[in-house]
């Protein structure tokens, strides 16, 4: 069965800190890994990663994929209170449909 | 302007009732989905439709029946509601199934069964 595991479950940091979130996966026929940010409502798309070693960057957020070791990290630098959210990692496989298999998420709380 | 919209936002009902949740997307996407998020925040796929055709049907009780009248709409009907059905249900859409296109989610419908 496809599995996506995120760590840590939760963390509390102060504004200005850097956080690193981890996502490991065990799936057959991997196609892509996605990161989402969920505040109170809809998960919003952050990154899609398909190739190893190529960093994707958007402002203070960046992410990279290691297809050999089967994991990805999401970095947030100079954190702000608005970064407080649950960060979700999901994986798609090369099969019919665009099914996302999600991890359990990492809850990040940024204190002022 | 809302890309993926669901109604209602909240739904409180009693066990045994039948209820529906509606979803519409104005992104021109071909594929729509229903996901269920439980109290532990795990998001799990329930169904996927591509151009009105059922593509993914996970191990969901047959009390749950999706209906797609056209590719911009995917509704979810639930019969004989049970306590365990309480969750947040998210509708989503993506450009193409089978390709690398990210899902766009609606704001969710919080269903509470009492």
Question: Overview of this structure, please?
Answer:
The complex is a heterodimer of chains A (112) and B (114). Chain A has 112 residues and is mainly β. In chain A, 0% of the residues lie in helices and 59% in strands. In chain A, strands 2, 4, 5, 9, 10 and 11 form a six-stranded mixed β-sheet that branches. In chain A, strands 1-3-8-7-6 form a five-stranded antiparallel β-sheet, with no helix packed on it. Chain A is globular. The N and C termini of chain A lie far apart (41 Å). With 114 residues, chain B is an all-beta fold. In chain B, the strands form two sheets. In chain B, strands 2, 4, 5, 6, 9, 10 and 11 form a seven-stranded mixed β-sheet that branches. A four-stranded antiparallel β-sheet of chain B has the order 1-3-8-7, with no helix packed on it. The mean pLDDT of chain B is 91.
Condensed summary:
Chain A has 112 residues and is mostly beta strands.
Query: Helical proportion of chain B?
Result: under 10%
Can you give the mean pLDDT of chain B?
A: 91
Percent helix of chain A: under 10%
- Helix count from the secondary structure assignment of chain B: 0
Order of helices and strands of chain B: EEEEEEEEEEE
Distance between the termini of chain A: 41 Å
Mean pLDDT of chain A: 93
Shape descriptor of chain A reads globular
Oligomeric form of this entry? heterodimer
Instruction: Please tally the β strands of chain B and state the result.
Output: 11
Instruction: Give the CA-based shape of chain B.
Output: globular
Structural class, from secondary structure content of chain B?
mainly beta
Q: Give the radius of gyration of chain B.
A: 13 Å
Q: Sketch the major β-sheet of chain B.
A: 7 strands, mixed
Biggest interchain interface, per-side counts: A-B, 25 and 29 residues
Low-confidence stretches of chain B: none
Structural class of chain A: mainly beta
Portion of residues in beta strands of chain B equals over 45%
């Amino acid at each position: 069965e496809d599995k996506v595991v995120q760590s840590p479950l939760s963390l509390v940091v102060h504004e200005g800190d850097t956080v690193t979130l981890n996502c490991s996966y065990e799936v057959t026929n991997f196609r892509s890994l996605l990161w989402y940010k969920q505040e109170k409502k809809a998960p919003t798309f952050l990154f899609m990663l398909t190739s190893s070693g190529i960093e994707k960057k958007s402002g203070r957020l960046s992410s990279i994929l290691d297809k050999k070791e089967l994991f990805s990290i999401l970095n947030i630098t100079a954190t702000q209170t608005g970064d407080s959210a649950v960060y979700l990692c999901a994986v798609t496989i090369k099969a019919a449909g665009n099914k996302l298999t999600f991890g359990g998420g990492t809850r990040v709380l940024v204190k002022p | 302007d809302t890309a993926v919209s669901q109604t209602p936002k909240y739904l409180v009902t009693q066990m045994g009732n039948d209820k529906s949740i509606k979803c519409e997307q104005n992104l021109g996407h071909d594929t729509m989905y229903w996901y269920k998020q439980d109290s532990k925040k795990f998001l799990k796929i329930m169904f996927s439709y591509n151009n009105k055709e059922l593509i993914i049907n996970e191990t969901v009780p047959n009390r749950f029946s999706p209906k797609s009248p056209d590719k911009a709409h995917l509704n979810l009907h639930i019969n004989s509601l049970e306590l365990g059905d309480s969750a947040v249900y998210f509708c989503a859409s993506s450009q193409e199934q089978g390709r690398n296109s990210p899902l766009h989610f609606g704001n969710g419908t919080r269903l509470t069964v009492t």
